[in-house]
Automatic annotation (TrEMBL):
Domain EthD: from-to ranges: 12-89
Gene3D superfamilies assigned: 3.30.70.100
NCBIfam families (UniProt xref): EthD family reductase (TIGR02118)
Origin species: Geodermatophilus arenarius
Pfam families listed in its UniProt record: EthD
Name this polypeptide is given: EthD family reductase
Length: 106
């Protein structure tokens, strides 16, 4: 079972500064979180141009909701959470859930 945290970042005031800080500071903090088993990011594009897409989306996978909670209670987790105010000028939203895999047969 995988428990996933989805972090969506809004359009930053300075995209170049956001990108540099995210890459050089926030990612190194995030990968130190205990129990993190997978960390992916992407820059989504809206299918409907009338609906804005987030600037960046990150997926952080853990073995369980309890493992995710322990990761955020850790020193690395607290440091990562505190770092958000240093670069996420466009706002940030977070949601988490148990991943249910759907098998596709063809």
């Amino acid at each position: 079972m995988v428990h996933r945290l989805v972090v969506s970042y809004g359009q930053p005031e300075d995209p170049a500064a956001f990108d540099a800080h995210y890459r050089d500071t926030h990612v190194p903090l995030t990968v130190q979180m205990p129990g993190l088993v997978r960390f992916t990011t992407g820059s989504p594009q809206a299918l409907d141009p009338r609906q804005p897409a987030p600037y960046l989306v990150a997926h952080l996978d853990f073995d369980s909701e309890q493992a995710m909670g322990a990761a955020f209670a850790s020193e690395a987790g607290r440091a990562g959470a505190a770092d958000l105010r240093n670069f996420a000028s466009g706002g940030v939203t977070m949601a988490h859930y148990e991943v249910n895999e759907v098998h596709v047969s063809r």
